[in-house]
Amino acid sequence: MKNMFSRKQLGIPYGLFLVLFVAAPLLVLVYYAFTDGSGKFSITNLLNFFTDPNTLGTLCYSFVLAIVTTLVCLLIAYPVAYILAHSKIKRKAVILLLFVMPMWINFTLRITALKEILSLIEGNLAFYPFLNTVIGMTYDFLPFMILPLYTTLSKLDKSLIEAAADLGADNFQTFIKVIFPLSVPGIVSGVSMVFLPAMTNYVVLDMLYNSTYIMGSLIGSYFSAYDWHNGSMIALILLIIICIVSLISGDSDSEESGRGGALL
Amino acid sequence: MIKKILKYAVISLVLLFMYVPILVLAVYSFTDASNIGAIHAFSFQNYVTLFTTPELQHMIFGSILLAFGSAAIATILGTTGAVGAFYSKKRVRNTLSVLNQVPVVNADVVTGFSICILIVVVFGVSKDTYIPLVAGHVVLSAPFVYLAVVPKLKQMDPSLYEAALDLGATPAYALFKVIIPQIASGILSGFVMAVTLSLDDYFVATYTKPATFDTISTYVVNATKGSQTQIKTALWALSTIIFIIVIAVELFINIVPSRKEKKEG
Questions:
Q1: According to the model, what pLDDT value does residue A251 have?
Q2: Number of CB pairs < 8 Å for A and B?
Q3: Does residue B242 sit at the A interface (CB-CB below 8 Å)?
Q4: What is the mean pLDDT of chain B?
Q5: Which of B49, B113, B216, B229 has the smallest number of Cβ neighbours within 10 A?
Q6: Do A223 and B88 touch (CB under 8 A)?
């Protein structure tokens, strides 16, 4: 009896840590979102968000930016992952590694590098703020889209593709009817990896001189103004969006995909 | 034939997109140019500046110390957490897994902001104690250590631990001699992951760090807003060094084990 006890107890420090630094901050966030400066219950912060055209505009801009970035990432990543998973390419492991390696380099330094190249091409970055942001985010998040797609596509049962061919389907039909539907879990998990950062990573915008706000920038500006209550409300709204996205992606988001998958 | 060329073209174009900026910057880091353009002369000035400017030295040393320190704490917490959860009742295990998943799916902005509010605003802990910053980075990385260790625990043969106990080992002795060696590869990749996440983080650091302290990310973001060309080009050198280290580590991790397997196999 005593033996079983000792192994279980090992989980206690981490359990306490998670409660204190993961669960408690979120509860405090909810408390701050629904109180005012004097600590009284209030829905002013909620009303502030949904009545101010600026914040609503920010929400829309974030969604548009996130959708465009995610689509661009998907359109680039899918062919790459498909080719890597299904063709006999020499040194496939090395090429896959090359696609994943940028994840290891500090993203601010990578965006700095991209910025220099974009300045050279465009002359002045201020001309195309939206385009530059999409390029910057694609540059930053592309590996997170390629990896889950590659994982799903390479695990795909080859005999199904052969069966489709035997039954008379041409390449295009096989792709539409067999390969694409089976790769949906990879797409969903890739999309959830890119969509949320695209709504919140305001550093990419700042560094590329895009002065339009996204949801993350709102938190940043309330933080700078010591406005914890409105900031918490934005964080809470983001949390709800995150919950919705995670619910949709649900079980397809397995342990091997995502940020951790690159290195494990 | 056309299909094959097309395949290689797609792969090469995307790789070019991902690597041209880093490589161009790497070339320019060895010149005296202050902008990407005409090269006048080759120079190591950027590397000298990088390692002799006190401000840059502090930033690099501080980031590394923070990364390894927080990764060490995260590795201990994440590993013990995974082992403890693995041998606990299903309900406890599921609760831990769900809580563990929160920082993984959450946006870093929200993680950083919520930790700042709890520790700094509610508990009144000063940011100058580094407690909020270290706690924040552990929150960011410990879940990934947990996720790296759990599959290794599942692959383990449970009878080995019981055999050790039957042969007279104490549970603690059996833990270190039987369980830890079998999950060591998971612990190591979790640790490496934790170091990388800490080095890459901007958002948690910016909400929890002391005003006088800078990580690589917060420093770079501030430097791009400023107009000091000397600092700007020194950062190109930093980017190049990190790129070379990443290549070296990747080669080491991926080539050394595959050679070993070949020898053993």
A1: 55
A2: 260
A3: yes
A4: 90
A5: B229
A6: no
Q: Give the span between the Cα atoms of A103 and A147, in whole angstroms.
A: 11
CA distance A211 to A194: 21
Mutate to test the interface with A, among B109, B149, B229, B231 (most CBs of A within 10 A): B109
Chain B CB contacts of A2 under 8 Å are 171
Contacting B residues, span 151-190, partner chain A, CB-CB under 8 Å:
151, 165, 171-172, 175, 186, 189
**Residue B2 forms contact with A (CB below 8 Å):** no
CB B224 to CB A192 under 8 A? no
* pTM, to two decimals: 0.89
ipTM of the complex: 0.88
Q: What mean pLDDT comes out for the span B120-136? A: 93
